[in-house]
Records
---
Amino acid sequence: MKEESYGKILIAEDNVMTQKLLGSIISNLGHEVTMVSDGMEVLEKLTLHKYDILVLDFQMPVLNGMETLKMIENGVNVDTNMHVIMLTGETNHEKLTQFEGLGISCFLKKPIQYDILSRTIKQLLNNDQYIGVKNAASTSYLQRITNSNKDLMVELIDVFIDESPKNLHLMKSYCLIEDWVSLQKLVHKVKANYSYVGIKAHEVILGELEIFISRNLYPESYLPKIIELEIVTKNAISALKKKKSVIVNKING
């Protein structure tokens, strides 16, 4: 049995009651908790210490969640392996698109639900099962369906690399606003993309997710499964970039 991982977690939340609730839940799960009240304090802590997860409220004084993430992106010395959980009461899908590309691992809706928070943290800290996996992606099927057309193979790989992070962001947004119909449609839509580029690990994740959503089962598991899929996807994209480079060299050679 895999040993449970425990981490150092920085919580940025200005509401005292929410602070106490989050601190109690997360510390009782066995993690080391540091609490701050605004974005500037987050930046100060990150320059001094390394954290496994940053739990960040969107609405905060001094620097809000988005401003804090942009400051981090623009040069604060932060461990790139740190996960970010964004807390928000925002349920407008269009507004959530502004967070795309800021390195957010997932959104959690306030008020916080214990099961979803605990499962999400556990998934983020136990994400190494797919890291460095051999054969994370394979181009053999892509080669067959394109009849070994190398230019088309490169084009399809580029589409997967470009579209997959956007689709994952959409999935997380749908979880936040509990739009299960849109989530199910998107899950069904992307399954073929993963098959085309030979990613085997997606079959169980997306298969279970699609069944659970269609039967309205275990909604607390949807976000952790999407996080698991994101880990699979990042590992696969890294492998696909290397395979693409080999194909391009053959085209140019």
---
Amino acid sequence: MLPDLVSLGLVGVGPWGRNIVRTIDALPDVQLAAVASRNRETSTLVEAECQIVADWRELMAIEDLDGIVIATPPATHVEIMHSAIEARLPVFVEKPFTLDVQEARDLLEHAQARKVFALVDHIHLFNPAFQAVRDQIPDMGRITVIDGLAGNAGPYRNDVSVLWDWGAHDVAMCLDVLDEIPVSVRACQVMRESVDSHVAEIVEIELSFSSGCDASLRVGNGMREKVRSFVMHCDSGTLEYDDCADLKAVIVDKAGQRQPIDYGGETPLACAIDAFVTAVRQRHSQLTSLELAVHVTEVLARAETSLKMSGQAA
């Protein structure tokens, strides 16, 4: 019999962690049972019955937790994930889940050995608009070209580069829709300048696949405004996902006629956490999401190598 209530523990209550708190609170039959945070405001953000601990390690010993949600800086993810998997607690973790290829592979092996479910939150994969666009692919023929554009004027982060911060999303979408690993990865710096003591960057990532598809992904925190588009040029037309547009999902035929695609109104984060909760309830041990995240890590590491080699293929 499936449990009626799923109890989750959360590590980290920064800006994104607070979004997670609000999202969990709004989901039926899910409770935030415990939070690991040193933030003095934490008690004002969670329900009175939510247990607050200072050290995330204490979460692993709390009885009746059904899963762990990790919303901390990327450098901390590996240790927390490893401990949760060791405790056989399913894991929901923000991207990038690690910046190191070997760590990524080791975590996958650990999860496989312990038969523990893990979901990496490549948030756009859970966006109803992106899912609606992806559902049209079988009717559009082969994807020949992908154009991605993503970024904003900031944020300026010290813990992760724009390649890993913004590029993880677009690479994940490419691997998801094509279901293959690129045979060639190139990356070059398009722009780099100082902005109020911070560094703004734009990076171009070029991926080539054995299917014949080429992807060009421009990402960074040096944009004039927020942009997020992912366009797939196919044999029978074009599929457009634009998270910043009024019409977020559009199909364009060969004659140039644009047709909106219907999609649900749930937030991507709510969809992602709901997918995690469903897997917890059904006691899934499938690791499709974690396997994809490992491949994303591998591609971004190759892109990072290409950047250091002035754009040579890696």
